[in-house]
Design goal:
- This protein is an alpha+beta fold.
- It has 2 domains: 42 residues, no CATH class; 132 residues, Nuclear Transport Factor 2, Chain: A (Roll), CATH 3.10.450.
- The strands form 2 sheets. It has a 5-stranded antiparallel beta sheet with strand order 3-4-5-6-7. It has a two-stranded antiparallel sheet with strand order 1-2.
- Strand 4 and strand 5 form a beta hairpin.
Length: 182
């Protein structure tokens, strides 16, 4: 629908008007669609950038300890260390397995580093991507080179004390799966 624009206003409307000074008036449908889009923008949950950034910071801090030559990685010695990185049920499995193995004077089920799925490492080219996986959940995909390219996927949960790992997926299985096989 076209509406006539008075000549004195025509220069103001030049961008939205035709050369005769006529301005296009939006249909009710267009106006309604725009209004719905604006309202939806306020009502729909905003992207969880802060959540993703926090989960990413958690993973960045872990993998920073592995990059380069002769790095020590993250020590999981002691109950507090396991609880610092893993959610309570997984931390309890790791702690129990370690104590049971020590009592039997055996190697624990987790006999390598869970973060890089290896016993030895010289990590380079680390890339960490984090995606929202629901309320207080995220999935971290970490790719790196340790002689050969590797990928691990971490299921993360947000607890009152911060982000924790609920499971780690490797090419051959999962961290939780190691303890279930026993």
């Amino acid at each position: 629908m076209l509406a006539h624009v008075p000549e004195k206003w025509a220069p103001v409307f030049r961008d939205g008007a035709n050369v005769k000074g006529e301005l296009m008036i939006s249909s009710r449908r267009t106006v309604l669609a725009r209004a719905v889009a604006v309202v939806a923008g306020f009502l729909l949950p905003a992207p969880t950038f802060a959540q993703d950034a926090s989960a990413k910071a958690f993973l960045d801090a872990i993998y920073k300890a592995y990059v380069g030559k002769d790095t020590k990685g993250i020590s999981l010695e002691g109950d507090a260390a396991a609880r610092r990185y893993f959610e309570p049920a997984l931390a309890a499995m790791i702690i129990k397995d370690g104590k049971d193995a020590a009592r039997r004077k055996e190697v624990p089920t987790l006999d390598g580093d869970p973060f890089v799925d290896a016993q030895d490492w010289e990590i380079s080219a680390v890339n960490i991507d984090v995606a929202d996986a629901g309320p207080a959940k995220a999935t971290g995909t970490v790719t790196f080179v340790n002689d050969t390219p590797k990928k691990v996927v971490l299921d993360l949960v947000k607890l009152k004390d911060g982000w924790r790992i609920a499971d780690i997926h490797y090419a051959e299985g999962t961290l939780r799966g190691l303890f279930r096989k026993k």
